[in-house]
Amino acid sequence: MKYVAGIDGSHAGWISVIRKIDKENYYKLVFAKKLSALFNNKLNLVLIDMPVGLDEEIGTGGRLVDKLARKKLIKRKSSIFNAPSRLTLKARNYQEANKTNKKHGLGISKQSWNLIPKIKELENLLQQGNRPLIYESHPEICFQEMNNNALSCSKKEKSGIEERRKILASNGFKLEFLDKYLQERNKNFKSDDFLDACAISWSALRVSKNININIPEKGIKDANGILMQMKI
C-alpha cells in the first residue's frame, strides 16, 4: 500500500486529498467532476464521506452504521443523515423517492435526495473489481477524534474553519498546504469541503496502519456484499 486518499463531495464534483504512506508530509489535492476520474492504479485505499453500502429496508434511525455514528458524535449529530434505501436509487424525482423510501421504512430527506447522483456514482465504482479499497468515513467524527473532544463551532462559520485549520495543523498538516487552498477562491469547492477531505485523509492513513476506529466494530454487509462500516 503506497497512496491513500480522503474524498469529499462538493457542489461541482469531488475533492480528494491524497497522502503517501511512507511520507506523511506529502499532500496532494485533486478535484474532478466525476468520482471515477480520481481513481488510478497508484491509489490503494480511499475513505469517502458518502454512504458505502445500502439497506433495502430502512428502520428508525437508518442503517446501523448511521445510528452508531450519531451516538459516537458528541455535537452536530444531524450532520449524519439517514442513507436512502437502495430501491430509491431508481426514483425519477423526490416525490417518487420519498414514496419508495417510506414503503421500505421511512421517508427520505431533501438532503439525502440531493445526494442520490453522487451515491449512484459511488455505487457504480463499488461494483467494479479493479479498484482501490473503498470505505465510508465522516469528517465531523474524524475532527472530533483528532481533537479528543467535540468541536466548538460549525464548519459553516469562519470560527469553525479556523478551529478545523488549527486541529489539522496540530495533527501533522503543514499550514502552508492548508492556507494555500483556504486563502484562494475556488469555484469548484468550498473551504469546508477541502478541510473535510483533509480530515478524512488523516483517517485513511490511520486505516493503512491499522490504528483506526471502526463503526460498528464488527462490520456488516449489504445485499450486494458491500461492507457498511465507517472507518475513523
Name a few traits of the molecule:
single chain, 232 residues, alpha/beta, 5-stranded mixed beta sheet, two-stranded antiparallel sheet, 21% strand
Q: Care to describe what's here?
A:
The protein is an alpha/beta fold and 232 residues long. The protein has one domain. The relative contact order is 0.21.
Number of strands: 7
Strand content: 15-25%
The rounded Rg comes to: 17 Å
Briefly note the structural class of the backbone: alpha/beta
Low-confidence segments, ≥5 residues, pLDDT <50? none
**How many helical stretches?**
8
Distance between the termini: 18 Å
How many domain regions? Answer: 1
Helix content: 25-40%
Note the overall shape: globular
**Main beta sheet:** 5 strands, mixed
Physical arrangement of strands within the biggest beta sheet:
3-2-1-4-5
Mean pLDDT, to the nearest integer, reads 93
Please trace the helix and strand order, writing H or E for each element: EEEEHHHHEHHHHEE
Helix and strand topology:
Blueprint: E1 3-10, E2 13-20, E3 23-32, E4 43-48, H1 64-72, H2 94-103, H3 110-114, H4 116-126, E5 133-136, H5 139-147, H6 158-169, H7 175-183, H8 191-208, E6 214-221, E7 227-231
Parallel strand pairs: 1-4, 4-5
Antiparallel strand pairs: 1-2, 2-3, 6-7
Helix pairs in contact: 5-8, 6-8
